[in-house]
Amino acid sequence: MKNKMAGLMMEVGATYDKKRLYGSKYFNQLMARVDDVPDSVKELLQLSRSNLELFTAIQKTLVRTLRENELIRRRVELLMSIAGVGEIMALTWVLEIGDPTRFHTNREAISYCGLCSAQRESAGKEQRGPLSKKRNKHLQTMLIEAAKLAPRWNAQLAELHEKELTKGNRNRATLAVARKLVEYLLAVDRRGTAFEERQSQVA
Predict the structure, then answer these.
(1) pLDDT given at position 154
(2) Three-state secondary structure call for residue 165
(3) b or e along 164-186 (b: 16 or more beta carbons within 10 Å of the residue's beta carbon)?
(4) How many CB atoms lie within 10 A of CB 46?
């Protein structure tokens, strides 16, 4: 809905503050003063704004309800002890993973999250293909998005990201961080204790 609103504004050449567009007060003020925007576009903008408000309200209600579940709340609190892991990332992990003990290795969990690619060997050379399509797409999306932000808050993940960046591929660096996040999340969830930073975790 946010992308649609911004797209409509750009299509008609209207000027607006991108950071404030989605705020209720600013949006209403903007609609009152943009005389050069056709009424049909204003109606579409109003509809998109209404849908955005509805989605936001539903999301807040859902998160609030999940917080009230004692088991979920406890697991989420422990997962959030990992610097760079927020409430929504932790909630998504808990709801999508279920019982973390079903994964015997980190590799199994990483594969389930769609963060590893098929590996092929030919003439003694190893080649990796695209990321596997057999995955939990919700976790895959959330982990990749989280991996883009987590290095800002987590020194170990920042170190890993910088190390992978030296190899010249930003996407590869993001995937490396996402895989490390899975290792952290799985360890905390299976152990049932808060995250403990270890100097040797980034190799």
Answers:
(1) 94
(2) helix
(3) beeeeeeeebbbbbbbbbbebbb
(4) 14
Report CA 177 to chain centroid distance, whole Å: 12
- With CA atoms as reference, report the closest residue to 10 among 45, 43, 35: 45
Give residue-wise pLDDT tens across range 109-167: 999 999 986 555 555 554 555 555 567 899 999 999 999 999 999 999 999 999 999 98
Asked if residues 140 and 114 have their Cβ atoms less than 8 Å apart, the reply is yes
* Exposed / middle / buried, residue 36 (Cβ in 10 Å: 0-12, 13-18, 19+): exposed
Q: Which amino acid is at 174?
A: T
CA atoms of 191 and 71, how far apart (whole Å)? 14
Residue that has been written with the tokens 């996040």 in this structure: 181
Give alpha helix (H) positions in 98-136: 106-112
Long-range contacts of 88-91 (CB under 8 A, 24+ apart): 88/63, 88/142, 89/142, 89/143, 89/146, 90/185, 91/63, 91/66
Residue type, 47: L
Task: Quote the tokens at residue 187.
Answer: 């360890």
How many angstroms separate the first and last alpha carbons of the chain?
A: 41
Residue 109 one-letter amino acid: A
Strand segments (E) across 102-144: 117-122, 125-131
Residue 150: phi, psi to the nearest 5? Answer: -55, -40
Q: How many CA atoms lie within 13 A of 39 on its CB side?
A: 0
